[in-house]
Amino acid sequence: MGGVLPLIGKRLLLGLGTLLVVSIIIFGAVELLPGDIAQQVLGQSATDETVAALREEMGLNRPSYVRYFEWLGGAIQGDFGVSLANKRSVAEQLGPRFANTLFLAGMAALISVPLAIGLGVLAALYRNSVFDRVTNAVSLVAISSPEFFLGYILIVFLAIQNPIFPAIANVTPDTDLAERAYRVMLPAITMAMVVTAYMMRMTRAAIINLLASPYIEMARLKGVPNSRVITRHALPNALAPIINVVALNLAYLITGVVLVEVVFVYPGVGQLLVDSVTKRDFPVVQACCLIFAATFILFNLIADVGAILSNPRLRHPK
Amino acid sequence: MADEKSVLLEIKNLKIEGYSDEQWIEIVHGIDLTLHRGEVMGLIGESGAGKSTIGLAAMGFTRDGCRISDGTVLFDGMDLTTATRGERRALRGSRIAYVAQSAAASFNPAHKLIDQHTESSLLHKVNSKNESEADAIELYRRLRLPNPEEIGFRYPHQVSGGQLQRAMTAMAMSCRPDLIIFDEPTTALDVTTQIEVLAAVRDIVDQFNTAALYITHDLAVVAQMADRIKVLLKGDEVEEAETRKMLADPSEDYTKSLWAVRSFQRDQKPPPPANETPLISVKNVSASYGPVKVLDGVSFDIYRGQTVAVVGESGSGKSTTARCITGLLPPTQGEILYDGQVMPPKYQDRTKDQLRQAQMIYQMADTALNPKKSIGEIIGRPLQFYGGLRGADLKKAVDQLLDQIELEPSLYYHRLPSELSGGQKQRVGIARALAAEPSFIICDEVTSALDQLVAEGILRLLDRLQKELNLAYMFITHDLATVRSIADVVVVMKEGKVVEMGPKDEMFQPPHHEYTDLLLSSVPEMDPDWLTNLLEERGVDNIGDAAHQKKT
Asked: Which of B123, B154, B158 lies at the smallest CB-CB distance from A223?
């Protein structure tokens, strides 16, 4: 394993560096808004005195880099400041919502990842068959449709015409696990439909890409049956691209939920972000963005590390 | 057990079609082949002769885009062309096995050697897992692989090419098949490694009385291995005869021309006068890739109009030396002199004129030419870059170059590389190098991917251009036959060092440096007894080890 650890260490450092840059961008974007936060909060009609007073209260008179480091230092310790809208701690509001979002994304992943890889392997195995063509066509439709549209269609068919699942995914902290899973089913299916398509097509392509390799021909010439050729000889070598696309799609599941959460009125980070933007609650917006960025970077990191670990040359150096 | 000499494989009137340009084109035109138990038949011919296609068809297998259109393949009484998929699959690996050209590419990188070895016998339920593993270790031992107990538990990338090729032969033997198809099993190997594999293959085929189809384009190799030889040309049989008879007295003109290929030879040029400045002088150059040192104090000179052949096994630092000369890899120590002037170590720091002087021609013309550019554009680019030519002048210069490489300008100017044969692509590579009007060209294994007849055409062309333009060549090769035909000076490299150098005529006369001797004596000769004699000379029992020890 000697060769792998330094590689992983390097990726980790790179990920942290990226996160730092993103935090500067997030902080900077708010700074660049016309006027400053005090003015935004108080609105057009506020007198200069009240704005100046608020500025003093919020510490906005100090240079921006000082405030940046204060904000960053707090964020590292889990303190994202106080919400402008209701004066409650941002972390307190964000915590349960982030857990909800993770739960929804987890459900979607639980449906989509096995489905996508299974379908991808089958499509590669029976490539150019009717099955392959139908799966490809359906997945193309799913990729091309916007999530909110898929969400409404599902509501029409699975909640209104056939009332199987609730149309609104309202959960509270004391909803138990089974009930929770039942209520988020429609948003989870919606998101799964979008990401399954990507992962399935990538799995299929990665496997088919390898089928022309000499070692696949060798396996066939050893009398290995087709299904085993795909699962034992092609799949392990196709893992790197598959891990990549899976990890990126999981990241998308968490960060791309905004629209779906709004459609299903689900109390997740996406909802909170949309609400806070309309309320100009900048500390919350900054915190949401930073969490999304961290998640995205984390999953990229996982993808990289997974791809490294799937390579036998790196796992077993000479 | 059937009769020792009964017919095992009988192919009758085999026709195979390939799909290209939206139609089926016949690529094998009615081949007959009869192979008895325990017999080894050599299939030889140039690329496109259909050797591999026929070899695979003997297993009832066709590659994607090919189909058997007519004829029968009778294996031990069963017609593989009409057998069901299940029946064919039951034969593959268990009664007919396959050894591929590149073991490095044909072993699955994701699994240990021994797991791949035992896969066939487990699938075909010949043995239990434990028995198969014990048998694998026994076969590794018989094939004289180092550490037979342990080597199978490594991954393919942890084992050297020659060892992998032997492990693949062992894998083919795992179910004790009646027939093995060897598809160019030593083509990708160095001469010294080739001997290890040839000896191992011959031994194992003898020991188990296995029949074999031995596919190769190397006549000297097939002479060592086969009882009978069948010569193929473009999907047709040219002739078939017992090996000794075929070598001594081929009846067809095509076969005679194959035999005659190695005749091209030009005389060694007189050494340059003592006071002449070398065109290129490599002075005490060391280089590394990261922490790995690959060149260690390499020095040699190349004079105008001369050809210096740099020989050695893969990994000896031949191509790295070329990269240092061209500035692609700055040396960690030492310097490159051009006409007495020190060249900047990095190509980025060299002037256009310095860059122009040293050009390269690559081994794989396929990958060295931009597939999206026409031949005219490819050759025209250096003319624009170095010569500043435009418009009609440019077209004229390209046409002249195409004439020089014997390709008709009106036919080839607008073609894409994919529309050319291997030899033609290599000619385009030569024209592109010439377009810069260099004084020095590095030829990196330029003929090793080509058939012998085509390779000879390239050598003749290079020789003619050298005479006309007074070019100096640095010829990187592991093929000593090529060295013998074109070199003036030979530099022998091993593990990043020059072990011996001198004029060709002296280098091919004994006494040699020990390593040069090993290289020279490892080149197969057309004599069918050559391998046997050599093995006796080196000690029959451990030819593989002997070759290996001498190397290290």
From this structure: B123
Q: By C-alpha distance, which of B490, B450, B529 is closest to B220?
A: B529
> Cα B326 to the chain's mean position, in Å?
25
- The pLDDT value recorded for residue A35 is 65
Between CA B68 and CA B75, with CA B69 as vertex, the angle to 5 degrees is 45
Counting the structural domains of chain A, the total is 1
Residue with tokens 């990890």: A247
The answer to whether B404 faces chain A, any CB pair under 8 Å, is no
Judge residue A172's burial from the number of C-beta atoms within 10 Å of its C-beta, 0-12 exposed, 13-18 middle, 19 or more buried: exposed
Q: What's the per-residue H, E or C state across B137-202?
A: HHHHHHCCCCCHHHHCCCCHHHCCHHHHHHHHHHHHCCCCCCEEEEECCCCCCCHHHHHHHHHHHH
Residue A316 lies in a domain: no
As for the ipTM of the complex, it is: 0.74
Regions of chain B with pLDDT less than 50: 1-2, 542-552
Check CB contact under 8 Å for B107 and A218.
Answer: yes
Which of B97, B106, B154 minimises the CB distance to A214? B106
Confirm or reject contact between A233 and chain B (CB < 8 A): yes
Q: What is the pLDDT of residues A217-228, one digit of tens each?
A: 899 898 888 888
Q: A35 in a domain, yes or no?
A: no
Please give the Cα distance from B178 to B42 (Å, whole number): 16
Average pLDDT over residues A53-78: 81
| Neighbour order of strands in the sheet with B307-311 | B358-361, B440-444, B472-477, B307-311, B489-494, B497-503
A4 assigned to some structural domain: no
Chain B contact present for A217, CB below 8 A: yes
**For the residues of A38-55, what is the DSSP string, one character each?**
HHHHH-TT--HHHHHHHH
Is there a contact between B487 and B459 (Cβ–Cβ < 8 Å)?
A: no
| Confidence class for position A307, pLDDT limits 50, 70, 90 | confident
Least CB–CB distance from B155: residue in A214, A219, A312? A312
Helices first, then strands: H and E counts in chain A: 16, 0
Q: By CA distance, what is B106's nearest residue in A?
A: A215
Helix, strand, or coil (residue B269): coil
Pairing of strands B292-302, B307-311: unpaired
Cα distance between residue B294 and residue B287, in whole Å? 6
Q: What is the DSSP string of B79-134?
A: ETTTS-HHHHHHHBTTTEEEE-S-HHHHS-TTS-HHHHHHHHHHHTTSS-HHHHHH
The C-alpha atoms of residue A120 and residue B459 are separated, in whole angstroms, by 50
Rounded to an integer, the average pLDDT of A225-241 is 88
Amino acid code (one letter) for A287: A
Q: Is B127 on the interface with A (CB under 8 A)?
A: no
For residue A56, what are the contacts with CB-CB under 8 A and spacing of at least 6? Answer: none
Q: What is the amino acid identity at position B159?
A: V
Which of B85, B108, B154, B173 to mutate: most A Cβ within 10 Å? B108
CATH number, domain with residue A141: 1.10.3720.10
Give residue A188's domain range: 93-284
Assigned token pair, A11:
């990726």
- pLDDT tier, A21 (very low <50, low <70, confident <90, very high otherwise): very high
Residue A37 inside a domain? The answer is: no
Distance CA B451, CA B477 (A): 15
Residue of A nearest to B160 (CA): A318
Going along chain B from its start, the domains and CATH numbers come out as 7-260 (3.40.50.300), 280-509 (3.40.50.300)
A134-167 pLDDT, tens per residue? Answer: 998 988 888 888 888 888 888 888 888 888 888 7
A133 contacts A204 by C-beta, under 8 angstroms: no
DSSP strand pairing (B307-311 vs B472-477): parallel
